[in-house]
Amino acid sequence: MPTPTPDSARQPQRDSLGRPNEGWRLLLYTIVFEADTRAGRAFDLTLICLILASVGIVMIDSVEAIHARWGELFTVLEWFFTAIFTVEYMLRLVCVQRPRAYATSFLGVVDLLSVAPTYLALFFPGLQALIDVRVLRMLRIFRILKLGAYVAEYGELGRAIMATRRKIAVFLSFVLMVVVVLGTLMYVVEGPANGFTSVPVSVYWAITTVTTVGFGDITPKTDLGRLIASMMMLMGWGTLAVPTGIVSAEFASRRKLSEITTRTCPECLSEGHQPQAKYCRDCGIHLPPYQVESNEK
Predict the structure, then answer these.
(1) pLDDT at position 205, please?
(2) Which residues contact 48 (CB under 8 A, 6 or more apart)?
(3) Most confident of the ranges 84-93, 268-277, 280-289
(4) Are 141 and 220 in contact (CB under 8 A)?
(5) Structural domains present in the chain
(6) CA separation for the pair 220, 199 (Å, rounded)
(7) By CB neighbour count within 10 A (0-12 exposed, 13-18 middle, 19+ buried), where does 13 fall?
(8) Are the C-beta atoms of residues 164 and 157 closer than 8 Å to each other?
(9) CB distance 271 to 258 below 8 Å
(10) Other CB atoms closer than 10 Å to residue 268's CB: what's the count?
(11) What are the φ and ψ backbone dihedral angles of 52, each rounded to 5 degrees?
(12) Three-state SS for 258?
């Protein structure tokens, strides 16, 4: 095997896909995907403001009176935001080692959905497609989901929910059994004469009662039915607190065990690695040096 020359030794290290994992792409990756440096924080804060502004414009533009007067201005602003988010999307594809993995990930799909409707609306200029254009315009509300990419606590909360999904599933299955049993009981007690025309309708009433929503479209008329409804209302107070407590306990324990960072794996894009970590906890690839800047001057 030939001995590496000094020139070849200075070449950037490359992964199995033949893409460099250092140099300007690594610098761009640190700014775009991580927020622990001054440039990264500025990038994320700017995008948060742009996302909120674009979502606000979409919501205001849905008001017919405002759209009739300021529609042209909103169209210009919409293309301005679309251009910025398109550049951001391209930068993310350029700086990651596996662009396809990012493009097919949840956040990658959200990024695409945030810009695609503006371009797709160009293909529906006819009057008969007005409804389709409005639907495409409303799809831009997906930009609000992009906020999760710039706030580390969103990712930590998502991991806490995933870690407790089995406990939550068991709890929801228990609540489902309760509403089915009590809904069926109310169908027997009240009957079609009082609005409980079938077991599915009675189960629907039980769900709205246990969740303390209480639309009021169906109400018990008998004393026994009102007693059962009262018990379900009181039980609903306790049941609503259970999933919140499960997720909150997991979230609090995770915050104690590790410091929350936006450090991201350049291979699988998993986020939240500890500052001292040398390898990705999901794919095992060697992580680049952690770059962080203190807020203190």
Answers:
(1) 94
(2) 147, 150, 151
(3) 84-93
(4) no
(5) 15-150 (1.20.120.350), 163-257 (1.10.287.70)
(6) 14
(7) exposed
(8) no
(9) no
(10) 18
(11) -60, -40
(12) coil
pLDDT band of 105, cuts 50, 70, 90:
confident
End-to-end CA distance of the chain: 51
Q: State the pLDDT at residue 190.
A: 94
Are 71 and 40 in contact by the 8 Å Cβ rule? The answer is: no
DSSP H stretches of helix in the chain: 6-9, 24-33, 38-61, 64-95, 99-103, 106-120, 130-139, 152-163, 165-189, 199-210, 223-257
Q: Which residue has the tokens 């406990």?
A: 167
d(CA 211, CA 99): 43
Q: In the numeric block, which tokens belong to residue 103?
A: 């493009």
User: b/e for 162-187, b at 16 or more Cβ within 10 A?
Assistant: eebeeeeeeeeeebeebbbebbeebb
Q: Identify the pLDDT of residue 119.
A: 84
For the segment 52-68, the average pLDDT, to the nearest whole number, is 88
Residue 73 tokens, joined: 């201005």
Q: Is the dihedral of CA 149, 151, 156, 158 positive or negative?
A: negative
What amino acid occupies position 242?
V
What backbone phi and psi angles, to 5 degrees, belong to 288?
-65, 160
Residue range 114-134, pLDDT digits in tens: 888 888 877 765 434 444 555
Q: Which two tokens stand for residue 61?
A: 């533009």
Q: Averaged over 6-15, what is the pLDDT?
A: 38
Could you give the CA distance from residue 138 to residue 59 in angstroms, rounded to a whole number?
8
CA 51 to chain centre: 14
